[in-house]
Write a structure and sequence with these properties.
The protein is an alpha+beta fold. It has 16 helices and twelve strands. The protein has helices spanning 13-21, 47-50, 60-66, 77-92, 111-114, 117-135, 147-156, 168-175, 188-196, 202-207, 209-216, 218-227, 259-279, 311-322, 357-376, 390-402, and strands at residues 5-10, 30-33, 42-45, 71-73, 97-102, 105-109, 139-144, 162-165, 245-256, 282-293, 298-308, 330-342. Strand 7, helix 7 and strand 8 form a beta-alpha-beta unit. It is globular.
């Protein structure tokens, strides 16, 4: 094998963490996400809940219709992030390169460490053992010659599974009779296009390559390669500066018509964006406002800016964009910065050369927070750090909505 890749994927991660911390939940249909009666979706659920047809990204109302006897919980993201950090610490110890694709999932290049398939098998079993013994959780692991094959292998024996796909030939033999949806990157819309053309299995893709390319263009060429087990992508460690944007958004439990409230919520979202940007030393050279209206129509509005990562500057740009959108009931609002650059690649703005620039930005932010205090009775003195927690952010936004 030219390269040996391990794909590690936790089993029902959020739900498993909650069950570990509260054994009374074991064996019950646990659904993490929004609560029944709220807006939102399922983040993840236990395998007991999946027996009722509940799955990630399902509308919470549909989940409740299918499983009214389920136990519904809001996610505790800070806890999951802490567990994730420990998990990746275990996994990364065995790889020359590690690519985290989620809190609970990663690709590991173990070519040098393993040497051969047997060595990779030993590493995989060690990862499973340490994950179980040190964190009380189970993971599914796939070992293969490519990233696609490794991800496919880790899905093969869930939960707490292990599977190997050593060669492209074995990948093809496994996948050929399966539905096209079994191929990595084939979603519902792509599958419907293929079905309409009489292409239902991976073998159909192999036999009708030209038709697939005509239907899907560049994506079609990628899929025809995958259908034959061809994937030469390398494991690439994630770097924050490679991100296209940094953003935060919230969904309201009831539609918001008051645009002053929307401007006030943007203050909190801008603070969250600032924190993440400064953590990685990144600046945005543009700001984007995102809205979803009552009828689910979504819009984005963007503008280029001088490099910024301060909450006050992000809010100022987003609030200006908000002034020029259609004033209809809003169910979701978000803000992000894009065209990211690091400190070393940033040009100084006029503000930067002024000695009191930082003080002025802090003064502007304090005025915004004073406005929230006056309108909603919110006092962030000594508690501002808590707003970065997802639970606190959403509860604060809902409190503001109810106290307009």
């Amino acid at each position: 094998m030219e390269q040996i890749i391990i794909h590690v994927d936790m089993d029902a991660f959020f739900a498993s963490v909650e069950i570990r911390d509260n054994p009374a939940l074991r064996g019950k249909p646990l659904i993490i996400g929004s609560l029944p009666g709220e807006r939102g979706v399922v983040a993840t659920c236990s395998y007991e809940a999946r027996k009722y047809g509940v799955h990630s990204a399902m509308n919470i109302k549909e989940a409740y219709r299918r499983c009214p006897q389920g136990i519904y919980m809001h996610p505790h993201m800070d806890k999951y992030k802490a567990v994730s950090q420990a998990l990746h610490g275990i996994w990364n110890a065995y790889a020359s390169a590690a690519e985290a694709v989620a809190l609970d999932e990663a690709y590991l290049d173990v070519t040098k460490q393993a040497g051969d398939l047997e060595g990779a098998r030993r590493i995989a079993m060690t990862i499973k053992r340490r994950t179980r013994e040190e964190l009380g959780l189970t993971c599914s692991v796939g070992v293969a010659y490519s990233k696609t094959a490794a991800k496919t292998a880790s899905e093969e024996k869930k939960p707490d599974g292990y599977f190997e796909i050593p060669t492209p030939e074995e990948f093809v033999a496994l996948m050929s009779p399966r539905d096209v949806r079994a191929l990595y990157t084939v979603g519902e819309m792509t599958a419907e296009k293929l079905y309409a053309a009489g292409i239902r299995t991976v073998q159909d893709i192999q036999e009708k390559q030209e038709l697939v390319v005509r239907l899907l263009g560049k994506q079609g060429r990628w899929l025809t390669r995958l259908a034959f087990g061809i994937d030469d992508r390398k494991v690439t460690p994630y770097r924050p500066q490679d991100a296209k944007s940094i953003g935060r958004e919230v969904t309201f439990q009831e539609d918001v018509r008051d645009f002053q409230l929307l401007k006030d919520v943007l203050v909190l979202l801008a603070l969250c964006v600032e924190r993440r940007a400064k953590r990685y030393g990144l600046y945005g050279n543009g700001v984007t406002l995102k809205l979803t209206y009552l009828d689910m129509k979504g819009i984005t509005r963007s503008r280029l800016t001088s490099a910024c990562n301060s909450a006050a500057a992000i809010w100022r740009e987003a609030a200006e964009l908000l002034e020029h959108v259609e004033r209809r009931p809003v169910r979701l609002i978000g803000v992000s910065i894009y065209n990211l650059s690091g400190e070393e690649g940033r040009q100084l703005s006029f503000d930067d050369v002024l000695a009191d620039a930082a003080a002025r930005r802090e003064e502007e932010l304090n005025k915004l927070l004073d406005g929230l205090r006056a309108r909603y009775g919110l006092d962030f003195a000594g508690h501002l750090e808590q707003i970065y927690q997802a639970d606190t952010l959403h509860k604060t936004v809902e409190y503001m909505r109810k106290h307009i």
